[in-house]
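Task: complex structure prediction.
Instruction: return structure tokens for all chains below.
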Amino acid sequence: MVMTGNYASAYGAKLSRAEVIAAYPITPQTSIVEKLAEFVSSGELRAKFIPVESEHSAMAACVAAQTAGARTYTATSSHGLTLMHEVLMWASGARLPIVITNVSRAMAPPWSVWVDHMDSIAQRDTGWLQFFCQSDQEVLDTIIMAYKACESRSVMLPAMVIEDAFILSHTSEPVDVPDQELVDSFLPAYAPELKIEVGKAMGFGSLVKPDQYMEFRYKAMQGMEDARERILSVEKEFKHIFGREHGGLLERYRCDDAEVVLVAAGSVASTAKDVVDAMRAKGVRVGLARIRAFRPFPHQELRALGSKVDGLAVLDRSYTFGAAGAMFTEVKASMYSLQRKPAVKNYIAGLGGRDITPRTLEKILEDMLVVSKRGAEDEVEWVDVAGLPRRWR
Amino acid sequence: MIEVRFHGRGGQGVVIASEVLAEAAFKMGFEVSAFPFFGVERRGAPVTAYARIDESPIRIKSSIYEPDYVVVLDSSLLRGVDVLEGLKTGGRVLINYPEASPLDGVPSGFKYYVIDATSIASAHGIGSQTAPIVNTAIMGGFAKICDKIDIEPILESIREIAPVKVEENVAAAREAFERTREVSL
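Output:
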């Protein structure tokens, strides 16, 4: 079928047999929950659909239903996601494997309904797994895989599947919608060990004293660490059944023998593959590493890559004020323990929906080839910005 | 790769037009991608949509700057919007244009085609008489001007996508296909 990323999200939630969906509309997410509302009203999806009065309530409803043993789903974007912030923390602390779609959109002011990753990046410390997608197909597949990985006994953490605003959310592409029976065989019903049950007295989210709190956090940390292996094993099984894979935590594209590699997340990585091919055709040894999982972060995978290349050009579609791009900070930290470190440079681009063109990506890689010859630098460069030198679009 | 840009106004079904094309091309075995660019989301405001059609999977997610085809759903946009911006030399332009009026004052170097999609949509009762929805008619015209896209898959896509008045939409597209003509400057 040809469908948008938003419909791919809705199909992903439907095929995963989400049992409770609570949502509040926000551009450009709205068509996800509209489609799910259609599925529920037509009877195609047996679920409780709860229209709520805010995103904070949407996540609160998911938390409550998931605590009672239901598989839940919601979708949001930008200000909706940041309004959820408090309850996102609750979901991970309570070890509830909720899966949501965030249509990644810039934060206001000034108002923008277009893509950047600031909303998602601002939630990196909430204890959620975060998957950045590059195609509609990946959005659908990742929702199904995220439920399976997150519901593993060793993980039990929530996940955020991220689609770029408009670039994926409203772009129609061919998407293979798998058979429900196959998805059922891959993803069994949600059956948590502990849940709220009538007639069974238990405490959830109780007060713990300082002599117990850290053990809870330590276990959540272990859950996130175990998620690394689970993401990979779940994807391997997914590939066996559905014949597709999307690159684990870090997708590497033509990185063997590369001098310089572009590190990026989201839909721009898809465009970058065309750029890498075009530059390779001219004999320039470049590659692409796509950060698919930002949490858990692929430190080991990046170190293995970094030890073999001269330079990493890290493209961030958001900015952490007073520091640098968040992807850059993490990538650079990963390189610290290497004996032979590559040069790492940060390129800030594409905020508020500014188009990142193939030409800009080519120029970034060309710049990085020069920078890597000069040795490691600590540089953050904003590109395609009025009044600044690197205007390549 | 074929790249197409659509110009219209909010409420005319510009985005759906690009999706009808993508669906039709997909039926013909092509890889496709269609995406909108919204300004202010309200009725009457200029809206742009885009489509790519290729033999191999489409990975590029950047916008289209040098289209091969431009489709104009509202001729009032010819004043005020540079609908020809970036169009490749020899590129084709399909305009929803009143039957009897001459198309003049347009630059050379491109091929122009016209179809009175407004009258056709109106005659088939699609949308209201004051604001007929012209997207299905104009896509019938597109099948005429594009060598790679046939009319039958366009009609089939319209059947799947049109929410109401399915056969009226199909009939409008078929009529537009037959009546679309090249304008000699």
